[in-house]
């Protein structure tokens, strides 16, 4: 009996303490549990509003997706040139090497020059400005100079070159590869502009390369011509010195009474290193006569004559305008088959979901506000 009384007393105290927790709290805040069935029921009662919002957002999404400018990207992949692309230029380089012209030029250097020019902002704008296709599209809206300039800059930003070789894999990949791309509203235009820009840059690289070779040939000709002139002057000076020495030697031989070569009669004479008299006066006189008859001392120098011949061949050399490709296509400019960005159906579905979520939130908030007022 006593234990039951104690139990009832504790329950009374517990109940009293629990009730005291909510003293001074408004009645609408005492029940804080979430009634999921109630929320679902509220949403079901407002299903017409939610469905109407979904349909409205779907229609709006359809029109927005129709108004959005489509994006088509044409891509190309290139690597440094190989023998087939380099054959015409290699013939010219071989001819230059035979003539001792050794320009610093290789496939990788020309490939890097192409990439450098491809990424040039000024060259991009120059090409787009001169392109009939781009000019026709931009001039259709009759823009002023500032708007035209802005349109060209925006288009140039869509021409991209990306290195496919990462820094980590640079040591393991046997070759370097670059992806070139251009994005346009029409698939055919994307391919045409990318292909045109690649050809435009290739022509500039070919022209600059040939101009470089011509400059190297001209430099070699000027250097060789000046070098031959200096060598000729040196040889003439040596020849004049030799004639003077022979004259002095002839005077010494006559003064010494030595007419014939000293070795012909068994005589032994200690010869003068500056004015040799070993040939005797007759021999020295004959040698002097022969030396004086030489009009061009270079005729007896084989190396000088070879260099003159090489210079003559360089003068006749004409580096003609040849065609070569500074890279190799691993993938030529492609015709895009898939539009970038979300498709129209996916865009409409996302718009419908957004409309349903917004409508449901509005319905629940309105229901909560109505409960507060009650």
Automatic annotation (TrEMBL):
InterPro entries assigned to the protein according to its UniProt record, in alphabetical order: Bact_polysacc_biosynth/exp, LPS_length_determ_N
Keyword Membrane: yes
Topology of the protein relative to the lipid bilayer: Multi-pass membrane protein
First-listed, main subcellular location of the protein, grouped into a coarse class: membrane
Protein location: Cell membrane
Keyword Ribosomal protein: no
Gene3D superfamilies xrefs: 1.10.287.210, FepE-like (3.30.1890.10)
GO cellular component, one term: plasma membrane
Domain of life of the source: Bacteria
Key words, A-Z: Cell membrane, Membrane, Transmembrane, Transmembrane helix
Positions of transmembrane segments: 49-68, 345-369
Residue ranges of domain Polysaccharide chain length determinant N-terminal in the record: 33-128
Record GO terms (molecular function): protein tyrosine kinase activity
Protein name: LPS O-antigen chain length determinant protein, WzzB/FepE family
